Amino acid sequence: MKLSSYISTIIIICSLLMSQSGSALVDYTEIYDWVEKEPKPSDLSSSTILTNNDMDTLNKWVPPGMIEEFKFPELQLLIQETQAEKPHSSYTLATKNWANTANIGVDGSLNNYTAGQPFSDEQIRSAKSDIGGFMIGWNNIHRWQHFGYQIDIITMAYVSGSDNNGPLNEEEGLLGGGKLDRLLSQSYHRVYLNKLAMLPQNNYKVNLKDSDTRFYKDFMEFLEPRDVKGTKFVVERMLDPHADDQVNTYLPTERRVRRFSAKERADSFMGSNVTLDDFEGFSGRVLDYTWTFIESRKILAVSNMEKEMITVYGPNSRALQHKYQLRDCYVTEVKSIWDGHPYKRRILFIDKETFNIPVSLIFDHNDKLWKVMQTVTSSPSSATKIENSVPSWRGQITVDLKANNATVVRAKTPTLHPVMKPKEIKRVFAVSTLTEGR
Question: Which homologous superfamily is 137-435 in?
Fold first, then answer.
C-alpha cells in the first residue's frame, strides 16, 4: 500500500472513531456559539427528507454533540410542518385573568401566582437574563397539563454500543445495532392537586386536604424483570418550593417502605444512565438551580409523534425514526446550587409554546458535553375535549457520550390524561398503598 493511501485509511478510521466518541469533547462554549448562529430564514420546508449527505443543513438545526447520532448511511429524516399547540381554553382564560400578577422573588421563587401561564414572552425578554431564566423555569412547571397523565406500561431499554448491525429488538422498537443489556418495565401516574386552571370554581385546586400543601403526586411501580418487580415509589412535590420532596419507596427485598434522600435522586436510577431528576429535563425543583436565559433558537424535535410507539435506528439504536419539526425554544442554562451534584450545568431547550423540554444537554465538571437527552411528545388530538388537549409524553432517549450507551424509554400503552376525583387520588397515591396490591 502506498504511504498516501495508508495515511488516508488512518484518517478515515480516526474520523469514524471520532464520530462515535468525539461528542464527549464538545465544550459548552461550542453550544453557546451554535445558539447564536441561528440561520434566518429557515431553509427547511415540510416533507423535506434529509439524508447523510445533508449534514450541512442538519448542523444548522441540531446542536453539536447531538448531531453525531445522525451520521450514518441509512439516515432518512423527514421534516414535518411545524404545528401550533395551543392549550385548553380554561388555561388560556386563567392566563388572561391573572396576567401580570405573578413576579419573581429575590431568591427566584414565584410570588402571587394563581393559575395559567405565569409569564409572557414580553416579560421574559424584557427581564434580566437570570430573572428571565426563572420565568421560563416557572412557565415550564405551570404549563398546561390538566390533571396530569397516566401510562400503564413504560419500558426502559439499556443499550450499549457494539458492532452488531441489528435489528436489535424489533418488539421494543430497537431497529438498529447495539447491544441490549437490560430491559425494565414500569407503570407511571402523576396527578396535580393545585394551580389547576380548569377548577376556578374550587380556587383552582382539588377538594382534598393535601391540595393545601402538595402541588402534585407521582406513583411508579416496576413490573419486570423479576429482580425489580414490585418496587414502588410515591413522590410528593410540595407547594412550598423551598420544601423537600417526600419520596417514599417500597423495595420487595427489604419488605418495608423507606424515604428516598435528595442525594439519591441524583444517582443512577434503577441502574440506567439517567437519574430520577432527569426525566423531564431537570428535577422540576426550580430553586435548586441558578437560571440564565441565553437566547431563543429553533431546534429540530419530535413533538408530534404519529406512530403508536417510539422506534429508533442507527448504528447503536439511538436515533429517533420519526418526523421532526422545527420548534422555537428558549435556550436556558441551569446550574445546581448543590456543589456535590454530578452535573456542572445543563442547557435546556424549552418549547416556547408548550414549555416542554425536547432537548437537554448535560455537562460534566470539566464543562464537556456528557449526556444528550431527547423527549418525544405527541400533539393534542383535540383542543376542545379537555382530556385530549394536552401534549402527551411518549418517551425519552438519553445518550451517555462517555460510556457510549443509551437509555431508551418509551410508552407502550396510550398516554391518558384522565379526570381525577378526590376519592381516586386518595386511593392511588397514598403512601400506605406501597405495601399493598393495586
Answer: Lipoprotein localisation LolA/LolB/LppX (2.50.20.10)
- pLDDT tens sequence across 339-377: 888 999 999 999 999 999 999 999 999 999 999 999 999
Spacing of C-alpha 305 from chain mean position: 15
For residue 351, give the amino acid letter.
Answer: D
Q: What does the pLDDT average to over 191-211?
A: 97
What are the boundaries of each domain within the chain?
Answer: 137-435
> Given the C-alpha cell 439519591, which residue does it identify?
264
Of 59, 57, 54, 60, nearest in space to 76 by CA = 54
User: 375: part of which helix (H) or strand (E)?
Assistant: strand 369-378
Nearest alpha-carbon partner for 330 in 140, 75, 160, 199: 140
Total length of the chain: 438
Work out the average pLDDT over 65-83.
95
Helix runs in 189-305, H state only: 262-265
196's CB contacts (< 8 A; 6+ apart) are 115, 147, 204, 205, 206
Residue 165 near residue 55 (C-beta atoms within 8 A): no
Yes or no: say if 226 and 403 are a contact pair by the CB < 8 Å rule: no
Tell me the β-bridge partners of 296.
330
Residues 78, 415, 285, 206, Cα dihedral to 10°: 140
What pLDDT, in 10s, does the model give residues 380-422?
Answer: 876 678 989 999 999 999 999 999 999 999 999 999 999 999 9
Question: How many CA atoms lie within 13 Å of 53's alpha carbon, on the beta-carbon side?
Answer: 1
